[in-house]
Amino acid sequence: MTSDTAPVPGSPWRPRIYLAILLLTTLALDQYTKLLARIHFGLPGGEPDYYKVKHILGEWLQFRLIYNTGAAFGMRPQQIVPFLNPTVFYVMFSAIAIGFLAFLYRKLPRGDAWQRAAITLILSGALGNLIDRLRFQKVTDFIDVGIPSFPARWPTFNIADSCVCVGVAMILLSSWIPRTPHPSPVPFPAPNP
């Protein structure tokens, strides 16, 4: 005997389970890598040790600890409302964004796995950075990308930021890729009385 809530092949639960696994896996990976960055590249008091750098691919890719008290790419939108504590601002902003993402997710057709996965990644990234803001009032960044001999480097980021960027890219790509419309079901003629 099976329960009504047990996932069965072809049921709507199977895609939801995959998306829940995607959300929890990327969120756990984000939090674990941030913890490792704080342990290996931070001073005993928690501040970044700017002399500790791990070269992964030379100057192309390296790990170093940076804390971001602003938004993406160092922007500071909280200056729009300077009377509000920056942490409160970002928590409110994140809560609104998460609510909007949940609304968008529920509006998507059930078969649109691509956009559902994209929104799940964006949601994972938003939650990952929100956890940092609630715990530390700043976001832990550690992935540093650049071009050798070029003075400007890409802003330092983390797994949560990557999830947001990949999710947004998936949504943009899906809007450019033509979709094959499903044929409309042909109605059966009404029986003659």
What can you see in these coordinates?
It contains 4 helices and 3 strands. The mean pLDDT is 83. A 3-stranded antiparallel beta sheet has the order 1-2-3. The radius of gyration is 22 Å and the shape is elongated. The protein has helices at residues 13-41, 86-107, 113-136, 159-176; strands spanning 54-55, 61-68, 139-145. By secondary structure, the chain is mostly helical.
Strand and helix map with partners:
Blueprint: H1 13-41, E1 54-55, E2 61-68, H2 86-107, H3 113-136, E3 139-145, H4 159-176
Antiparallel strand pairs: 1-2, 2-3
Helix pairs in contact: 1-3, 2-3, 3-4
Which sheet architecture does the biggest sheet show? 3 strands, antiparallel
Q: Report the structural category.
A: mainly alpha
Radius of gyration: 22 Å
Order of helices and strands: HEEHHEH
**Unreliable residue stretches:** none
β-strand number = 3
As a percent range, the share of helical residues equals 40-55%
The N- to C-terminal Cα distance equals 43 Å
Q: How many helix segments?
A: 4
What number is the mean pLDDT? 83
Strand order of the largest sheet: 1-2-3
Strand content: 5-15%
How would you concisely characterize the structure shown here?
This protein is mainly alpha-helical and 193 residues long. It contains four helices and three strands, in the order αββααβα. Helix 1 runs parallel beside helix 3, helix 2 (86-107) runs antiparallel to helix 3 (113-136) and helix 3 runs antiparallel to helix 4 (159-176).
